[in-house]
Design a protein that fits this description.
Helix content of chain A: 25-40%
Largest interface: A-B, 27 and 18 residues
Distance between the termini of chain A: 32 Å
Structural class of chain B: mainly alpha
Low-confidence stretches of chain A: none
Oligomer: heterodimer
Structural class of chain A: alpha+beta
Low-confidence stretches of chain B: none
Helix content of chain B: over 70%
Mean pLDDT of chain B: 93
Largest sheet of chain A: 6 strands, mixed
Strand content of chain B: under 5%
Shape of chain A: elongated
Number of strands of chain A: 20
Number of helices of chain A: 11
Order of helices and strands of chain B: HHHHHHHHHHHH
Strand content of chain A: 35-45%
């Protein structure tokens, strides 16, 4: 539905390079990256608010690169909502319909249905300067959605909200997306948010898209060290691969040797998902498993799970439930075995 | 406010400058007898001249509103090569001595010069006319309005305009419907400042158009020919009228806020 072809944008001190991706009809596409990665600029390029230095933006078969924003039919919601302070809530929401010279009846009906849908019927007369963060977001969403755009761009819509409210609105966004025909492209720096919402995630760093995939793909197979760290993969180890004549190679790092299954050669990183490390009191014998002995150096509570930090010559982090923590009587200083399957090790 | 040592010291220093401003004005106003003032109020020459001053300053303000506010918007929104130079040019009239500004204008609009000649052929005279007064006032007081408008536009987050664009507003509609209403109060107070500055202008006006006489020129002339006693009531009247209009405009401006 929307395709960016080799989009470049140069500024004085920053440039957006060779952006190339396609978003499918009714997809929830999330652009994830640290601040300063160029995510907002990318959205503004798609919206037509700034023009690329070169490259094309296609909608279906039409080149819409130079179509002005008011003719694109693409909605945009900013982090700080960008509500019009000179108007009340209702006038903000119907701004676009009024510009389109819609009839009074149509405006009234649409306003009624959108404000009920987003649960803001009771604040329509309020001054937008006196709204709470969550209310502002709902109004900004209503203002964009009332025009039924085929594509809605969301620029960090949740990041200025407090945690419980953020989770609530996150669910709300997902519901709105699933109940509408609109395609969503959202920008965020919050990995959890991306995983929760996205059909696919595009990871962005220094003005470039470095990996696109489903949340699962990105978590399981981060393309490089940056992605791995950014998505919160905990055990990233640097080392090199020793050829053994088959695909099953030997990975050697400063302090450990692992069997890995990869076509990568030479220097590399491996990541071992913390939740895939099995902790036991005795060694678990199996040819397909990597197993190592170490001492627990720390146990950190992480919500419903615990992070066990084990020194096996190198620090490994494993996630366990409270139940396993108690059953295995895990304590600081205790010696344990950490075991994980070869297939769970990702090499990059 | 806390009455600690620093605040008291600062207040004392502040009081000095306040007294310095208020005292001469009060002295002038209260040392003028009401009969004298009343006589002046019936003097057609004085009334005409005050009217001329007020309207000329108003025209100058409107002229700057039309030509200066768009420039203010461009300066507030965009970065381009030479922007600093343009900003410097706008501030220039504040720094140039106003008589020098008058001379400068004369070298363009004087009857012996190209522009002046051209306008003269069209039957328009700048020198010695209300048009000259308006030009002189515009030249010296435009920075007040342009800079106020520029600051006001700068305070409007471009994202708000962007949002309006994505909702279907063209650039000019976004300006009209969103940016301008948001900046309205600041621009209005810039207009008041510019208008006030125009009213008080003497140096540039006196060189470009001694006649018809604006109030500051009339005050000067009466002072020169007849002395303080004759100049003072005119000055008092001008101050009182200006103060009155300001109070009205400020109340008007504040009410718009709500």
């Amino acid at each position: 539905m929307l395709r960016l072809v080799n989009i470049n944008k140069r500024f004085h001190q920053f440039s957006l390079g060779s952006i190339d991706f396609e978003v499918q009809e009714n997809e929830y596409f999330v652009i994830l990256g640290p601040s300063g990665a160029g995510k907002t600029v990318l959205l503004e390029l798609i919206a037509g608010l700034c023009l690329p230095t070169n490259g094309k933006i296609l909608s279906g078969n039409c080149d819409i690169t130079f179509v002005p924003p008011e003719k694109k039919g693409i909605g945009l919601v900013y982090q700080d909502c960008a509500l019009f302070p000179s108007m009340n809530v209702q006038d903000n929401i119907i701004f676009g319909l009024k510009l389109r010279k819609k009839s009074k009846n149509e405006i009234r009906d649409k306003l009624k249905s959108i404000s009920e849908y987003l649960k803001i019927s009771n604040i329509l007369d309020r001054d937008v300067r006196n709204l709470s963060g969550g209310e502002k977001q709902r109004v900004a969403l209503a203002r964009a959605l009332i025009l039924e755009p085929k594509l809605l761009l969301l620029d960090e819509p949740l990041s200025s909200l407090d945690m419980p409210l953020r989770e609530l609105l996150r669910k709300e966004l997902k519901r709105i997306h699933s109940e509408s025909k609109t395609t969503f492209i959202q920008v965020t720096h919050d990995f959890e948010e991306a995983v929760f919402l996205a059909d696919r995630i595009a990871l962005m760093q220094h003005g470039m898209i470095i990996q696109i995939g489903t949340p699962e793909e990105i978590m399981r197979r981060p393309i490089n060290h940056f992605v791995a760290e950014f998505v919160g993969v905990r055990n990233i180890i640097k080392g090199f691969l020793v050829e053994t004549g088959s695909d099953l190679k030997l990975f050697e790092s400063r302090a450990m040797r692992l069997q890995v299954n990869t076509i990568v050669k030479g220097n590399c990183h491996v990541s071992i998902p913390a939740e895939d490390i099995l902790i036991s009191k005795e060694k678990i014998e199996s040819s397909a498993r990597n197993s190592m002995h170490g001492t627990i150096v720390d146990i950190l509570p992480r919500g419903r799970t615990y992070e066990i930090i084990i020194d096996v010559g190198q620090r490994l982090i494993a996630l366990v439930t409270k139940r396993s923590l108690e059953e295995l009587e895990l304590k600081k200083g205790k010696n344990v075995w950490a075991t994980f399957k070869t297939s769970e090790i990702h090499v990059f | 406010m806390h009455f600690n040592k620093t605040n008291i010291l600062f207040s004392v220093f502040g009081a000095v400058i306040l007294i310095f401003i208020v005292l001469p004005l009060c002295k002038m106003i209260f040392s003028t007898s009401s009969s004298n003032l009343f006589e002046t109020m019936c003097d057609r020459q004085v009334l005409n001249s005050i009217w001329l001053t007020m309207t000329s300053a108003l025209y100058a303000t409107i002229l700057t509103l039309i030509f200066g506010v768009p420039l203010a918007y461009i300066l507030a929104r965009f970065d381009f090569i030479g922007k600093r130079v343009i900003e410097g040019i706008i501030d220039l009239p504040v720094m140039v001595p106003h008589t020098a500004a008058g001379i400068a204008l004369l070298t363009v609009f004087g009857q012996r010069y190209f522009f002046g000649k051209m306008l003269g052929k069209l039957g328009v005279s700048v020198v010695g006319s209300q048009l000259g007064i308006v030009f002189a006032m515009t030249f010296v007081s435009a920075p007040f309005l342009i800079n106020a408008a520029k600051e006001a536009f700068r305070l409007v987050d471009p994202k708000i305009e962007n949002a309006a664009r994505t909702l279907g507003a063209t650039q000019i509609q976004a300006f009209q419907k969103i940016t301008l209403p948001m900046s309205r109060r600041a621009i209005f107070s810039g207009m008041i400042m510019m208008w006030a500055r125009g009213i008080s202008e003497f140096g540039a006006v006196v060189i470009l158009a001694y006649h018809p006489m604006v109030a500051p020129v009339l005050i000067f002339e009466r002072f020169e020919t007849f002395g303080l006693g004759y100049a003072k009531p005119v000055a008092v009247l001008l101050v009182l009228v200006s103060l009155g209009v300001f109070c009205v405009l400020h109340v008007f401006g504040d009410r718009k806020k709500c």
